[in-house]
Amino acid sequence: MANSFSDDLKNVMLAGFGAATIAAEKSKELISTLVEKGELTVEQGKELMEKLVEKGGMTAQNGKKVFDSLVEKGESSLKKSKARNEEIRHINEEKKKEKNLKSVLENMEGMTKEQIDVIKKRLTEIEKKK
Known about the structure:
3 helices; mainly alpha; rod-shaped
């Protein structure tokens, strides 16, 4: 399950980075076209490209921080879930033991003293083996 979550998160982030890359490439193409048509000067195009690269770099850094944070939160949540599942499993085992003990005690109500003594002796032997 952890791998699936991590893989899905990685794929989403990669798709986002891919989209950002495509957008940056299209922006460069648009700026080049505007410069070629004379709607922007070469200097204006260069300045605009530098701003896009600067903003894009900051976005990539922020994206990595967000990605790392999401992975950390996912791993933390997974650890908490595993711990909680182990706690629930332990509680269920204890409930099962209590139920079995209650059943044994209910069955002992109709036993003679000799039968109870035999059971006590067997329990003592079992305890010694542990």
